[in-house]
Design goal:
With 174 residues, the protein is mainly alpha-helical. The protein has one domain. 40% of the residues lie in helices and 8% in strands. A 3-stranded antiparallel sheet has the order 1-2-3. A hairpin with a 2-residue loop joins strand 1 and strand 2. The longest helix has 15 residues. The two termini are 27 Å apart.
């Protein structure tokens, strides 16, 4: 959650014509858990279709460095997720969709489950999620990692139903 909430417009780019988000530390306001958390993740086709890059570009044109400028850090943990997680839980509860095991972290769990069911290799799933490579083969002998095209193709193996999401941008991106 913190990785998403602290995103900056400069964290978005393209490589080989593939749009990606960079999870890294570009200033003293951003944090990641460890070096494995630093990664370049291609954007899923559904995020492109919803107009995420148009939103990023609007922020850039407005001279804003952060994507979610309205968020503030919590007082005790000094994280964006401290306040946001409470608001997210409140949203779930007030809209009648709260279950005991349903929280924001479930999105990460669901991502892992969908990638596994799509038969995405374990080393690729770990890289996308920012986890360390625990096996010697990929940790020591595959340092170059998968190409950005391979990672994009793996991410796009999962289907995400966006039919119920309001689309502020009417432009469709393939």
């Amino acid at each position: 959650m913190e990785e998403i909430l602290q995103l900056r417009t400069s964290d978005f780019g393209t490589e080989e014509n593939i749009p990606f988000v960079l999870v890294d530390v570009s200033d003293d306001k951003q944090r990641v858990k460890n070096d494995s958390s630093k990664r370049k993740v291609p954007l899923h086709r559904s995020l492109l279709e919803l107009g995420l890059l148009i939103f990023v570009e609007e922020r850039r044109r407005a001279g804003l460095s952060r994507l979610f400028t309205h968020l503030r850090r919590g007082a005790s943990k000094d994280t964006y997720s401290e306040i946001f997680s409470k608001k997210f839980a409140y949203y779930l509860k007030t809209n009648g969709i709260k279950e005991r095991t349903l929280d924001f972290h479930c999105l990460r769990t669901d991502f892992q489950t969908r990638l596994t069911r799509a038969r995405v290799p374990e080393h690729a799933r770990k890289a996308m999620m920012g986890h360390a490579q625990s096996d010697i083969t990929h940790g020591a002998y595959y340092r170059a990692g998968d190409t950005i095209e391979m990672v994009r193709d793996d991410i796009n193996k999962i289907e995400i139903d966006i039919s119920g999401i309001f689309r502020p941008y009417r432009q469709s991106v393939a």
